[in-house]
Write a structure and sequence with these properties.
Number of helices: 9
CATH superfamily of the largest domain: SPOUT methyltransferase, trefoil knot domain
Number of domains: 2
CATH architecture of the largest domain: 3-Layer(aba) Sandwich
Number of strands: 12
Oligomer: single chain
Order of helices and strands: EHHEHEEHEEHEHEHEEEHEH
Structural class: alpha/beta
Distance between the termini: 57 Å
Length: about 250
């Protein structure tokens, strides 16, 4: 077994570049960390190119058929993007999961916080949504903080990067009801929304909200009432409330 101990090793240098979005897009690969995410990727049939481990880390028997590269602790820390690495990183190829127009979908307009995006993807998965569409200005799906916040849900459902103006028109043609979140006086309480079997829920930027043109295309504009003195809800919290309501209405 060969042990890589230098961060100047050519393969280590190539993998390190995957921390940057431009290299992820060029190579169509990304890094994941930790036993749970590696297992989720494997069980969901995502193509794992290489597993990188330190000497003292045990891996599951079913992963042993993959290429395993052993590195020193210092090299793994060089590749890691967490404060306390678990000693296992995988290089994964991007995969397209096809979208079938059924059920409910989530549309995200310029969501910039990685934790918010990852949490909303995880909640969409839990709520049984069929897909998540990422519009212009939304943080990269393969950002390490996004990946960790999804807790593996990114491997379970279609997540599609597309211009929302095109997505909305296409979904309207497929008989989807477009539901937007808005705080203006024209909106209705979300609890009054009933019997939507094919709904597309739009949530917008943490500071600016949903782009005006998307609001104009919506069939319904809804809000979650604030009963206390908070100015607003975190967008991922609001997303969770609305997704579960649409799913169960």
């Amino acid at each position: 077994m060969t042990l890589i101990t230098s961060i100047h090793n050519q393969r280590i240098k190539q993998w390190h570049k995957l921390k940057q979005r431009k290299h992820r897009e060029r190579e169509q690969k990304f890094l994941i960390e930790g036993h749970h995410l590696v297992e989720e990727a494997y069980q969901s049939n995502w193509p794992i190119e290489t597993i990188i481990v330190t000497e003292n880390v045990d891996i599951s028997n079913h992963l042993s058929s993959l290429e395993i590269v052993t590195v020193s602790e210092s090299v793994l820390h060089h590749l890691s993007q967490t404060q306390t690495p678990q000693g296992i990183i995988a290089v994964v190829e991007k995969k397209h999961i096809p979208f079938t127009a059924s059920g409910h979908v989530l549309l995200l307009d310029a969501i910039q916080d990685p934790g918010n995006l990852g949490t909303m993807i995880r909640t969409a998965d839990a709520a049984g949504f069929s897909a998540v569409f990422l519009g212009r200005g939304t943080v990269d799906l393969y950002n390490d903080k996004v990946i960790r916040a999804t807790q593996g849900s990114m491997f379970h459902l279609p997540i599609i990067q597309e211009l929302l103006e095109h997505v909305i028109e296409d979904l309207k043609d497929k008989s989807y009801t477009i539901v937007a979140t808005d705080l203006s006086s024209k909106t209705i309480d979300y609890t009054s929304v009933k019997n939507i079997t094919k709904g597309a829920l739009i949530l917008g930027n943490e500071g600016a909200g949903i782009t005006e043109t998307f609001l104009e295309k919506a069939d319904l504009s809804v809000k979650i009432p604030i009963h206390g003195q908070a100015e607003s809800l975190n967008v991922s919290v609001a997303a969770g409330i609305l997704m579960y309501h649409l799913r169960q209405s």
